[in-house]
Specification:
Blueprint: E1 2-7, H1 10-20, E2 27-32, H2 35-38, E3 42-43, H3 51-60, E4 65-68, H4 71-75, H5 78-84, E5 88-90, H6 94-101, H7 103-113, E6 120-123, H8 126-135, E7 140-144, E8 153-156, H9 159-171, E9 176-179, E10 186-194, E11 197-200, E12 205-206, E13 209-211, E14 215-218, E15 223-226, H10 233-253, E16 259-269, E17 272-279, H11 286-292, H12 298-306, E18 322-329, E19 358-362, E20 365-367, E21 373-375, E22 379-387, H13 390-401, H14 417-420
Parallel strand pairs: 1-2, 1-4, 2-3, 4-5
Antiparallel strand pairs: 6-9, 7-8, 7-9, 10-11, 10-16, 12-15, 13-14, 15-18, 16-17, 18-22, 19-22, 20-21
Helix pairs in contact: 1-11, 6-7, 7-10, 8-9
Bound molecules: glycine.
The site of glycine has 7 residues, from loops.
Length: 430
């Protein structure tokens, strides 16, 4: 199978690495890819949001499967264009990708499917904002109704910060979604979905705030770990049966079946799992950790999903142990990140010792003419490490990241720490 991966981040680098481990995958290309992907696969400078360019590349590469990583091309209908060209594509149609592209649409689907989620209101006009804020909070949850790479969300007890964010979004012409705050530990559950067939992957937890101890502004994600030692397997079953399957069935009922990766972001509260958000693609940085533990051929799973044969596919098998992603971010991220600095120490994997269980994935990098690796984005690199348990995976990741030098860069030192220290517990059900 020849596979074309669309995207350029660490999630796509992880997908490429996992596809390389699939003996059924004979060739991999990525567009536009990144310098890390370029070391192991062919990369082509094609705009992921350009339907003609992506279809042209898929034909030129003779792709048997196109895997679309990011949400923007999905919302723009690139998967529809690839399928219309007769090529199997992993990723939902534009109509189904609205589950991420419009939070109001997602709320409507959840209401119809009877799925628990935060109470919400959409605000379209600045004149409605104050009265709406008074009906919510504290704590206020103010979201951009459209796509915002994780940075459109402000969760705050400060009413003026909530108001400023809402007003700024409205000024930019973006409808604002106000939500009641959902309490409880957060879980990201990724499910392969083909119509009404739902196959969950390992549950993971993201760390969205920039600073240790969940401080500072929201980011696209500063790190993740899997599995979750504090989450009983029955809760994963409950999420699949009471959240993901009803939503998949409702999408089928509406004539917009979901095909691809449905990402349920949940808070596990006193009343059980409640949905914080749905995304229409693999999450970043959770995917990097989840795929590090996959012991099944990824290409076969994605192809089965894309071709409507998931129900007949072998379910995924997982390695024992734990995996963790730690994101190395550029100075000033998640504001305007500093770019163009030389990175050293990212190359190579030690043959033995703790670093041997860690790999470096590229997220926002570029190559200078002389071959030097430069920072080129907010999230620059990911270190993904495995271990017999989460404590060992953490030790391996932090050992490896300590050897990487990038001026002004920062990373969280507490990814997975609360779980290792047994500080996460599920609330008693009421
Ligand atoms: N982990 C957050 C996201 O992928 O949106």
């Amino acid at each position: 199978m020849r596979v074309l991966v669309i995207g350029s981040g660490a999630r796509e680098h992880a997908l490429v690495e996992a596809l390389r481990r699939d003996p059924g995958v004979t060739a991999i290309a990525a567009a536009p890819g990144n310098p890390g992907i370029g070391q192991v696969a062919e990369v082509r400078a094609v705009d992921p949001a350009g339907a003609d360019a992506v279809v042209g590349l898929a034909r030129d590469f003779a792709a048997d499967l196109v895997v679309i990583g990011p949400e923007v091309p999905l919302v723009l209908g690139i998967a529809d264009a690839v399928r219309a060209a007769g090529i199997a594509c992993f990723g939902p149609s534009a109509a189904a990708a609205r589950i991420e592209g419009s939070k109001a649409f997602a709320k409507d689907v959840m209401a119809a499917a009877g799925v628990r989620t935060a109470h919400s209101e959409v605000v379209d006009h600045p004149g409605e904002l104050d009265a709406a804020l008074d009906r919510f909070g504290p704590t206020w949850v103010v979201k951009d109704d459209g796509l915002a790479a994780g940075k459109g969300v402000v969760v705050t007890t400060d009413r003026s910060a909530a108001r400023d964010h809402g007003a700024e979004l409205l000024e930019q012409g973006h409808p604002v979604l106000l939500e009641s705050f959902l309490d409880g530990p957060e879980v990201s559950l990724f499910c392969l979905v083909d119509g009404e067939t739902v196959v969950p992957l390992l549950p993971a937890q993201d760390h969205k705030r920039v600073g240790d101890g969940d401080t500072g502004p929201n980011t696209g994600g500063m790190g993740a770990y899997t599995p979750l030692p504090w989450l009983p397997p029955e809760t994963v079953t409950e999420i699949v049966d009471d959240v993901v399957k009803p939503v998949a069935a409702e999408m089928v009922r509406r004539g917009v079946p979901f095909s691809g990766l449905l990402y349920a972001g949940l808070a596990i509260g006193q009343a059980g799992p409640a949905v914080v958000e749905f995304n229409c693609r693999f999450g970043d940085p959770e995917t990097q950790a989840v795929l590090a533990l996959l012991d099944s051929p990824l290409g076969a799973l994605l192809h089965a999903t894309a071709t409507g044969t998931l129900a007949q596919a072998q379910p995924p098998v997982w390695k024992d142990g734990a995996a963790i992603t730690v994101v190395l971010a550029a100075e000033n991220y998640p504001g305007r990140p500093r770019t163009g600095d030389v990175i050293s120490g990212a190359e190579g994997t030690p043959a033995s010792g703790p670093g041997a269980n860690a790999e470096v994935l590229h997220a926002g990098t570029s190559l200078r003419a002389d071959g030097a690796l430069l920072s080129a984005g907010g999230r620059v690199l990911n270190v993904v490490a495995t271990g017999a348990d989460l404590a060992e995976a953490r030790a391996n990741a932090y050992e490896r990241i300590a050897g990487i030098k990038l001026p002004g860069s920062h990373f969280r030192t507490d990814i997975g720490l609360a779980a290792v220290e047994d500080r996460i517990s599920l609330p008693t059900r009421v």
